[in-house]
Amino acid sequence: MEDNKRVYTILLFLTALWCSGILLAPSLHASHPAAASIVYSAYSPICHQVDGRCFHLFEAKWGVCIRCSAIYFGFFLSLLLYPLFRRLSSPSFPGRWWIALAVAPMVIDVVLNFTGILPSTPLTRSITGVMFGLVLPLYIVPTLLEGVAQLRSQFSARGGFFYARKAQ
Q: How far is CA 30 from CA 35, 36, 54, 128, in A?
């Protein structure tokens, strides 16, 4: 159980760091443009960062677009509240229909916008992103904890980390 808490805490810390970086980019934009550019570059492989589709802080766009921001901050909120609703020792996750239900509005919003039927707005991007982000920890946390437990048992069965490295 102590290992589960440690893994959860590391995931929570890394998620907080990731979300902080999203806000760090615009915070550095005016005073340290070179540093802001580095932060924006770090997020560019995972997000288009189109200015008109981003939240703004200090008149500079966030590190990722509205939908990505909503997903990440929704994930962080759900991860933060996770131990209040689910035990870390429980390796189960909800049925697949929950994730399908969470991603469906986002897919519909994208398709309607792409086809020109109904334009996507900051509100629809925010809502659909948060819905998806809130559900993700229900699948990621148990999977991560189970994966770490399996790795740990494999290493301990073979004599620890050093034995596993020698075998490669």
A: 10, 9, 17, 31
Distance CA 12, CA 137 (A): 10
For 24, the token pair is 């760090």
- Among 141, 125, 134, 111, which residue's Cα sits nearest to residue 68? 125
CA distance 14 to 47: 18
Distance CA 77, CA 145 (A): 19
Residue 45 phi, psi dihedral angles, 5° rounding? -65, -20
DSSP string computed for 103-127: HHHHHHHHHHHHHTSS---HHHHHH
User: How confident is the model over 66-97, as pLDDT tens digits?
Assistant: 999 999 999 999 999 999 999 888 778 888 89
